[in-house]
Specification:
The protein is of the alpha/beta class. The protein has a single domain, classed as Amidase signature (AS) domain (Amidase signature (AS) enzymes, Alpha-Beta Complex). The chain has 14 helices and 15 strands. The longest helix is centred in the middle third of the chain and has 23 residues. The radius of gyration is 21 Å and the shape is globular.
């Protein structure tokens, strides 16, 4: 019998609305799952069970009274620990904020609560989201649900693991160099990087930078679309949430359910590396095998890539600029409490001149325009979501791929930040496993503003892949996780590196 916590978000919400599943019943199922398997993986690091139970009882009463319910009514939610939650500790993965309890929810949390979601707890993240290995000196490491000795990626690693294990049906994430897409790929769930501004953020320090975005994570594309529909909006606090005065252009109903998509009408480009990413040979082979049966579904599918020259240099400079803005004071005043990834980015940022920044911004603009020309010929791009198969989490970052040294601690994320630079929407969709038995994520990239197209195409591909165990979303062995020793006992569990 299916446990309530294993139901899709769409199904659970429908059953709640039909009075066939009580929000409190769903919540207790999620809590039992957390208590059973989380010791093995350490995904839900700050728990809010008692307040969640009170919210679930109130949700039960609202169902009994009848009337209109929110789109997420009664659905337990995991919130990434970079996002402020009123009355619940929010550490950002940093010892500096070990005891920080915000007075208010930030916008994304507040709107999801208003839509009916029930915050179950905070999901683990690396310090300030730096690096794609979910480890920190407050809560320790989050292990991959398919092998807790391996990385869950990051920075939304806790959200991805909680979803994969059925602890929550929906979770929040954020993405700069793939922080939604990377853990989705490593953990066998779905993560979507929307167009910057589609999900407003009032916390982005460099308000006009398109690099960081907030977005949804779920176990399926329809679940993800449901969550996204509650996140979107126009908000003057975010300069990128552009609007027409007096007009409403970001509508929830445009994203609540993926529209039907005729794959046979789409022109698709396939690339294992965007011409520059250090994709390992193993992943290239898995990508070729995974996409070969998909190509006949499209009007045209061929190997091609946009011109991505200068991507590494531009991203490195602009990313360091963001870290310099956000974390210079911390590195100077409390260096012992700041980890190596954050320090490296701040130190790098201090080396750049105004001329370097101007050159990087100009390179990004030229890059964006080349992408627009490419999308005159194609509707979508398919790539691997990440350059490698999961490696042990004790490795802070991959220093080499296929024997070749990586440029930086985030160079292995180049397949993701190639898209970030252009500002296009992209999703990581689980497509079976790789040759090591670990999840494989397919990245689907859309045109400028093509969020609805990406979701529709991903939903159509998900349906096409679901019938074959070799290509369907992989599911971790929960019994094995329940019997596994607590990850907290592993050597190197707690710390930055």
């Amino acid at each position: 019998m299916t446990e309530p916590c294993d139901l899709s978000a769409v199904t659970a919400r429908r059953l709640i609305g039909a009075r066939r599943l009580a929000p409190s019943e769903l919540l207790e199922s999620c809590i039992r799952r957390v208590e059973t398997v989380d010791p093995a993986v350490n995904a839900l690091v700050a728990r809010d069970f008692e307040r969640a139970r009170a919210a679930a009882r109130a949700a039960d009463d609202a169902v009994a009274r009848g009337g209109k319910l929110g789109p997420l009514h009664g659905l337990p939610l995991g919130v990434k620990d970079l996002e402020d939650t009123a009355g619940l500790v929010t550490t950002y993965g940093s010892p500096i904020y070990r005891d920080h309890v915000p007075a208010d929810d930030e916008r994304i949390v507040a709107v999801l609560r208003r839509a009916g979601a029930i915050v179950l707890g905070k999901t683990n993240t690396p310090e300030f989201g730096a690096g794609a290995n979910t480890r920190n000196a407050v809560y320790g490491v989050t292990g991959n649900p398919f092998d807790p000795a391996k990385s869950a990626a990051g920075s939304s690693g806790g959200s991805a693991v909680a979803l994969a294990c059925g602890m929550v049906p929906i979770a929040t994430g954020s993405d700069t160099g793939g922080s939604l897409r990377n853990p989705a790929a490593f953990c066998g769930i779905v993560g979507f990087r929307p167009t910057p501004g589609l999900v407003p953020s009032e916390k982005r320090g460099l308000g006009w930078s398109n690099l960081p975005v907030l977005g949804p994570m779920a176990r399926s594309v329809p679940d993800l679309a449901l969550l996204l529909s509650a996140m979107v909006g126009d908000d003057a606090a975010d300069p990128l949430a552009a609007t027409v005065h007096g007009a409403r252009i970001r509508r929830a109903e445009d994203f609540a359910v993926p529209v039907d998509c005729d794959l046979a009408g789409l022109r698709v480009a396939l690339t294992p590396d965007f011409g520059f990413a250090p994709t390992e040979r193993h992943i290239r082979a898995v990508f070729a095998a995974a996409t070969a049966p998909l190509c006949p579904l499209f009007a045209r599918a061929e190997e091609a890539t946009p011109d991505c020259r200068d991507a590494d240099e531009a991203f490195e400079v602009l990313r360091a600029l963001s870290f310099l803005s956000a974390h210079l004071d911390k590195v100077r005043s409390r260096p012992a409490d700041v980890g190596p990834n954050v320090r490296a980015n701040v130190e790098e940022g201090l080396r750049y001149s105004a001329a370097d920044v101007a050159r990087a911004m100009g390179a990004q603009t030229a890059y964006y325009r080349r992408w627009q020309s490419f999308f005159d010929r194609y509707d979508l791009i398919l790539t691997p979501a990440i350059t490698i198969s999961p490696r042990p989490w004790r490795e802070l970052y991959p220093a080499e791929i296929d024997g070749v040294a990586t440029r930086t601690y985030f160079h292995w994320l180049a397949l993701a930040y190639a898209v970030t630079l252009a500002g296009h929407p992209a999703i990581s969709l689980p497509v079976g496993t790789d040759r090591h038995g670990m999840p494989f994520g397919l990245q689907i990239v859309g045109p400028r503003g093509g969020d609805a197209l990406v979701l529709a195409a991903a939903a159509a591909l998900e349906r096409a892949l679901a019938g074959n165990p070799a290509t369907a979303r992989p599911v971790p062995d929960l019994a094995r996780l329940a019997a596994a020793p607590p990850i907290a006992g592993a050597e190197g569990f707690l710390g930055f590196d």
